[in-house]
Amino acid sequence: MTRLHASAVLDYPFEAPATDGSVVEIAPGILWARMPMPMALDHINVYLLRGDAGWTLIDTGLNTDTARARWEHIAAKHLQGLPIVRLVCTHMHYDHAGLASWLCERFDIPLHMTHGEYFMMRALSEPIPDPLPPSQMLFYQRAGLPQERLDRMWNAMRQDPFRAPQPQSFTRLRGGDVIRLGTRDWRVVIGEGHSPEHACLYCEQERILIAGDQLLPRISSNVLVTSIEPEANPLQLWLDSLSRLEGLAPDTLVLPSHERVFRGLHARTQELREHHQRQFDMLREHLAEHQACTAFEAMLCLFPRLRGPVDDMLALGETIAHLSWLRYAGVLRRVLDEDGVYRFRLA
Ligand SMILES: [Zn+2]
């Protein structure tokens, strides 16, 4: 679940561009633009890197007519007579890659992505079966989710308005690769937990990090367990990824995918660690009081104010991610009760 934290310690050196196709230059040849999104989180940041041969685009915005119009505007007004030469998508989520197919065809450019992100995107492009396959149903039944909430959740997911055509090929990014984009060398730093193989890009020389969703200044990124990999421990992967980012220079300028460009990387990773620690503490306190709970009951404890079926899906996945972390750490145990539902207890 996205949660806002007020942070006094981060420094925001630039005013954000509007979502009307205007751009802000944050370093020589690095432009920041914003694509609008029709939801509570109302924008995604995209970046453009100028090189001698042309521009590299970082991320796309949602598959909407408005976002396409913004790209047309940017291409017409802000590219200083140079072509677009490639698209990099940090990860497969539809605000980051929803226009990948369109941009690649429109500007005749290659798509650069990690293997994990590209194939997860392709796999999830299939329509969701109705009814859900038994193995997926089982995941939610074991979580204790009431049937009507499960139906509501999947009906909402089936009506996803941003489903996008898929790019048919890609160029692979790998962790540790150093690639030339624009006039700078960027090292690919992989993050996990929010998505399978999320690419951040780090310019060592100038200490600039294109962070995607791995490091946002006020929102905590979704870290979910889903029915696809029910025994996963994504929160451990996420915390390990924060450790990798903590190896970068303290004065790094962070270019996140949402909200504003900032400095204060280490303060922010620390806040995120504290955020997850608070969730762990809440679950332990809840269990100390109630002896046992299902994942659904734990979700109502962590997220008492859910606003609809998509919230349910994110909150349940995030709750199970925290329960799984505590279970793998030996703090909780999980028992499959006779009614077919997992119950968690303090170990
Ligand atoms: Zn994302």
Question: Could you walk me through the main structural features you see in this protein, from its secondary elements to its overall organization?
Answer:
The chain is of the alpha+beta class and 347 residues long. 35% of the residues lie in helices and 22% in strands. The chain has a single domain, classed as Metallo-beta-lactamase, Chain A, CATH 3.60.15.10. It contains 10 helices and 16 strands. A hairpin with a 4-residue loop joins strand 3 and strand 4. Helix 6 packs across helix 10, helix 7 packs antiparallel against helix 8 and helix 9 packs across helix 10. The two termini are 26 Å apart. The model has no long low-confidence stretch (mean pLDDT 95). Bound molecules: zinc ion. Zinc ion binds next to loops.
Secondary structure layout plus pairing:
Blueprint (H helix, E strand, L loop, with lengths): L23 E4 L2 E7 L6 E8 L4 E4 L6 H13 L6 E5 L5 H4 L2 H8 L3 E4 H9 L10 H9 L4 H12 L12 E3 L4 E4 L2 E8 L6 E6 L4 E5 L21 H13 L6 E4 L5 E2 L1 H26 L1 E2 L1 H8 L6 H20 L3 E5 L5 E5 L1
Parallel strand pairs: 4-5, 5-6, 6-7, 11-12
Antiparallel strand pairs: 1-2, 2-3, 3-4, 8-9, 9-10, 10-11, 12-13, 14-16, 15-16
Helix pairs in contact: 6-10, 7-8, 9-10
The structure holds zinc ion.
